Structure formats: C-alpha cells, structure tokens
C-alpha cells in the first residue's frame, strides 16, 4: 500500500508540476482574483486527474486510443484554451478589493472550469495514457492499490496547487498593475501556443 501511495504521489506531481495551460491559468486567476479563486480552480484540476486515474484503473480510457476520439478531444481542448485566451484579454488586470469580493459568488464555476479544462487538455490525456499500462498492472495486482494510488495522486496535485497559490498570495500584492498586465498577456500568449498545438494534433 505504501509503495502504491508513493507511486501515486510521483504520478500526481508528474501531472501537476510541468508548466502548461493549467498552471498558467491558476497563476492568472490568483493574480486577478486572489488565493481562493486560484485554489478552487486548482481543486478542479486535482479532481480531473483523480477521475482520469480511476478511469485508467478500470480500463475505461482505451477509447482515447482511437484516432478519431483523440482528434475530437484535441479540437475541444483547443476551443477551451482559445476561450480562456479571450477571457484573459477581455478582463483588465487589477488589484482592488471590489474585483476580489465580487468574485465570491462564482467560486463553484471556477472549480467546474478547472475540471473541464483539465478533462479536455490533450497534454493531460497524453500523460495519463503514457502511464496507463503501469496503472493497469498495479490495479490488477492488488484491489486496494487503486485506493492508494488515488490518495497519492490527489495528495500530490493538491500539495502542488496549494504551494503555488500560497507563493502567489504573498507575491501578488508586491506586483504593480503593469507587471500583472504583462504577465496576463504573456499567459494569454502561452495559452494560444498550447491551443495551436492542440489544433496541430487534431489535424495531424
């Protein structure tokens, strides 16, 4: 059980830590709205990774190996990323209490968006597909291994998400609006690149 939990930790960190559209969006939302919004968006990401692990354990992700399904998912992922680019460019970065307070009522939506964004992210699918054989072997070896893996993945992704948001919480108030504005536009640029990569995989 312990080694399965540790393996789950490694899987979770491997899925969460690399800089990609998920982490960029956490950073953007934290700087724009505050710690709680970034953390709850990250919670959606953690939940999606856990769902992918569970589906892998039961062999339900075999359908993603079909080229047509991968193409559809890549198109959806590109559309979602372009949508977030639009939101990023539409909203003017600011550091005022009114923007943060007004966002309290939308916390649930941030978590849902994080979950959906991760589910259709081609890089997330490719990562979990690459470890599918190992996960399937472990889950067949011990029925309790899936639980240990799941706990490890969830602990790892949550620890990274909380660490990232905590670091941003102590830094964001030291940044000027212009600095956040440039970081916002840089994030939009990188999200556009990831969206174009998704389109490339869709029409490859």
Layout: helices, strands, pairs:
Blueprint: H1 2-16, H2 21-33, H3 35-57, H4 67-90, H5 97-102, H6 107-119, H7 122-130, H8 132-141, H9 145-171, H10 177-203
Number of helices: 10
The outline comes out as globular
Task: Write down the oligomeric state.
Answer: single chain
Radius of gyration: 18 Å
Class inferred from helices and paired strands: mainly alpha
**How do the SSEs run, as a string of H and E?**
HHHHHHHHHH
Can you count the beta strands? Answer: 0
Average of per-residue pLDDT values: 76
Classify the helix fraction into a percent range. Answer: over 70%
- As residue ranges, the low-confidence spans are 96-102
What share of residues are in beta strands? under 5%
How many domains? Answer: 1
Instruction: Please give the alpha-carbon distance between the first and last residues.
Output: 41 Å
Largest beta-sheet characterization: none
Which features would summarize this protein structure in a list?
204 residues, mainly alpha, 10 helices, 0% strand
Describe this structure in words.
With 204 residues, this protein is mainly alpha-helical. It has one domain. Helix content is 82%, strand content 0%. It is built from ten helices and no strands. It has helices at 2-16, 21-33, 35-57, 67-90, 97-102, 107-119, 122-130, 132-141, 145-171, 177-203. Helix 1 (2-16) packs across helix 9, helix 2 packs across helix 9 and helix 3 (35-57) crosses helix 7. The longest helix is centred in the C-terminal third of the chain and has 27 residues, at 145-171. The N and C termini lie far apart (41 Å). Mean pLDDT is 76; it is low at 96-102.
